[in-house]
């Protein structure tokens, strides 16, 4: 192992989590992995992170364990809560205003704090009440024609259009603000994709 990097496998062992759980945490924190061949793994290319990012991972795991969370809760949301917000975060408002992240969170302040570890100028542009079940389809709607940079990180030339797509998506979904519509299903979400596609075909 080179002094300034550590494999995700070794990082997982160090924090006492499974490898897949660590990958989920890294995605939530916005930490990028890179692959290099390893003599310890028959020359196969495996994922690494920098030691600085490893320290961020250790801090995050320690804080979650202090709060009573465990490995099964590593998606960055509160276990047992199926609704929260869908967020649109601008990662570099000044230097790269078109780069953004979207996703689901039960606590947007905690989520923004975690993203600031790797993107200190990150800003929440807007949030929408959302069910966890809707997240994947909401991302697909919001990021249509955007360039995907990482798992939930994209780039656009027109942020206003991204916001408008989100507004249209959630306007079609059951109202969660007053607690109504909490039984909404993925079929509701799929209708938005069809609606959006029809709207683009008509334009």
Quick synopsis:
40% of the residues lie in helices and 23% in strands. It is an alpha+beta fold and 203 residues long.
What does this protein look like?
- The protein is α+β, with helices and mostly antiparallel strands and 203 residues long.
- It folds into two domains: 5-73; 83-202, no CATH class.
- It has seven helices and eight strands; from the N terminus they run βααββαββαβαββαα.
- It has a five-stranded antiparallel β-sheet with strand order 6-4-5-8-7.
- A hairpin with a 4-residue loop joins β7 and β8.
- α5 runs parallel beside α7.
- It is globular.
- The N and C termini lie far apart (54 Å).
- Residues 75-80 and 178-203 have low confidence and may be disordered.
Strand fraction equals 15-25%
| Overall structural domain count | 2
What separation lies between the terminal Cα atoms? 54 Å
Strand sequence of the main sheet, in spatial order?
6-4-5-8-7
What sort of overall outline do the alpha carbons produce when their principal axes are compared? globular
Count of individual helical segments:
7
> Radius of gyration over alpha carbons?
18 Å
Poorly predicted runs are 75-80, 178-203
Number of strand elements: 8
Mean pLDDT: 79
| Fraction in helix | 40-55%
Category by helix and strand content: alpha+beta
Largest β sheet strand count, sense and barrel closure? 5 strands, antiparallel
**What order do the SSEs take from the amino end to the carboxyl end, as H and E?**
EHHEEHEEHEHEEHH
